[in-house]
Design goal:
The structure is a single chain. The protein has 19 helices and six strands. By secondary structure, it is mainly alpha-helical. Strands 1-2-3 form a three-stranded antiparallel sheet, with no helix packed on it. Strands 4-5-6 form a three-stranded antiparallel sheet. A hairpin with a 2-residue loop joins β5 and β6. α4 runs parallel beside α19, α11 packs antiparallel against α12 and α12 packs across α19. It binds carboxymethyl coenzyme *A (CMC). The site of carboxymethyl coenzyme *A (CMC) has 20 residues, from loops.
Length: about 450
């Protein structure tokens, strides 16, 4: 299957592919309960590309079974037209377009439009979209007082979770999820305000004054200026750095049903407002197994410190009695290579060159670590490759971001993915509240034990 998809992607793609609807259930699979000898059929639904799914929606109602899949390794939680990943072939498509082409030829705002609307924008459409986003970048002034309630040494992701959740207390005119116009406004507000919120989190941690957005700047430029400018002097934006940030945003914009996106969908399935849902997504992203990995990679590289110590850390990563893992390595879906990592590896060299950094010890260390790990049977057998987080931190550090801001940048970029999935979910007629079931392994019913008779 993987080879078939990779081959089909090498063929020239039509400029504008017609949207294809998933086929109605035709095939079935038969399940036999070998305890009773009874069999029943389950419908199979074919995807446009990628694995078909067994439709188990009526499994419990008709046959009194749940499925069991901790970590959802084999479970499709929804139908989606936004992003396709073929982990075996290392393919990532947004609305059908390969990520490498988008990273090379598009801007982040174009990719936002594509994810939200399903098509690349025309010149007029992108101008209107850019105007809408640019004119929502300012925050209600009272939100600044929120920041002052945090400790200066608070992790900026803690601030992000709090402030983004608080947006629902400020923008009441875009929290009615039944109103399509309000949904658009909320989506644009989230994409537009996220860089402002992120930059303010950074400014607050440094004790510098907040810098307001400027409407004559692009998305990445504005973010860089709000983060690094000070009122006392002119801030010159390096076009190479702005392009690198824009590219990092493109590469992190969406990634199908990952933990944080699934969190946003589940939170939204109850009818919660989009600001609260995205705050939930940020909380999920923060974990080191997900978006927090980019911060953890830098901490790991600094801890390793010297190429001579790489074997020691490889040994630890392979030791089942040691909780240490190679951060930035491995992925639930990619089992060949992460296409985002390849783009970022090249970007890393480009950014360092443009900043005049001839020798970056952490990059040398990272490349050597990658080389040694990729020759090691443990990593080869388990198909563990560098993921998107392996090289991004080196670029961000070179630009001047502290490690604590790395996951914040991921959150800024992923907001469009969260919002696109949230909209798709609300518009999906099959949408119901997300409510998984369980395999209960606890006590059988038993009598209450009064305090005096316990222990
Ligand atoms: N270092 C050492 N061993 C690893 C690693 C690693 N980074 N990743 C997986 N393994 C081993 C794991 O111990 C297991 O071995 P065994 O089969 O002997 O028990 C096998 O590989 C499969 O791992 P898993 O934990 O069952 O795989 P998963 O799909 O549940 O987890 C992952 C995927 C990304 C959480 C995991 O690879 C990991 O923890 N990587 C490091 C953290 C990281 O870089 N996360 C960023 C992910 S990409 C960006 C994003 O999605 O946010």
């Amino acid at each position: 299957m993987a080879k078939k998809i990779a081959k089909s992607l090498r063929r020239p793609l039509p400029a504008k592919a017609a949207p294809v609807q998933p086929e109605k259930p035709r095939a079935t699979v038969t399940v036999t309960d070998n305890r009773t000898g009874k069999s029943f059929d389950l419908p199979v639904i074919d995807a446009v590309i990628g694995p078909s799914v067994i439709d188990v929606r009526k499994l419990y109602g008709d046959h009194d079974f749940f499925t069991y899949d901790p970590g959802f390794t084999s479970t499709g939680s929804c139908e989606s037209k936004i992003t396709f990943i073929d982990g075996e072939a290392g393919v990532l498509l947004h609305r059908g377009y390969p990520i490498q082409e988008l990273a090379e030829r598009s801007t982040f705002l174009e990719v936002c439009y594509l994810l939200l609307q399903g098509e690349l924008p025309t010149r007029t459409q992108i101008e209107v979209f850019r105007h809408d986003i640019t004119h929502h970048t300012m925050l209600h002034e009272q939100i600044a007082t929120f920041y002052r309630g945090f400790r200066r040494d608070a992790h900026p992701m803690a601030v992000m979770v709090g402030v983004v959740g608080a947006l629902s207390a400020f923008y009441h005119d875009s929290t009615d999820i039944q109103d399509p116009h309000q949904r658009v406004v909320a989506s644009h507000r989230l994409i537009a305000k996220m860089p402002t919120i992120a930059a303010m989190a950074y400014k607050y941690s440094t004790g510098q004054p907040f810098i307001y957005p400027r409407n004559d700047l692009g998305y990445a430029e504005n973010f860089l200026r709000m983060t690094f400018a000070v009122p006392a002097e002119e801030y010159k934006i390096s076009p190479a750095v702005a392009r690198a940030i824009d590219r990092i945003f493109i590469l992190h914009a969406d990634h199908e049903q990952n933990a944080s996106t699934s969190t946003v969908r589940i939170a939204g399935s109850s009818g919660a407002n989009p600001f609260a849902c995205v705050a939930a997504g940020i909380a999920s992203l923060w974990g080191p197994a997900h978006g927090g990995a980019n911060e953890a990679v830098l901490a790991m590289l600094r801890e390793i410190g010297d190429k001579k110590r790489i074997p020691e850390f490889i040994k630890r990563a392979k030791d089942k009695n040691d909780s240490f893992r190679l951060m930035g390595f491995g992925h639930r879906v990619y089992k060949n290579h992460d296409p985002r990592a390849s783009v970022l590896r090249q970007s890393c060299h480009d950014v360092l060159d443009s900043l005049g950094i001839r020798h970056e010890p952490l990059l040398d260390l990272a490349m050597e670590l990658e080389r040694i790990a990729l020759e090691d049977d443990y990593f080869v057998e388990r198909k563990l490759f560098p993921n998107v987080d392996f090289y991004s931190g080196i670029i961000l550090q070179a630009i001047g971001f502290p490690t604590s801001m790395f996951t914040v940048l991921f959150a800024v970029a992923r907001t469009v993915g969260w919002v696109a999935h949230w909209n798709e979910m609300i518009e999906d007629p099959a949408q119901r509240i997300g409510r998984p079931r369980q395999l209960y392994t606890g006590h059988l019913p038993r009598r209450y034990v009064p305090m005096g008779k316990r222990g």
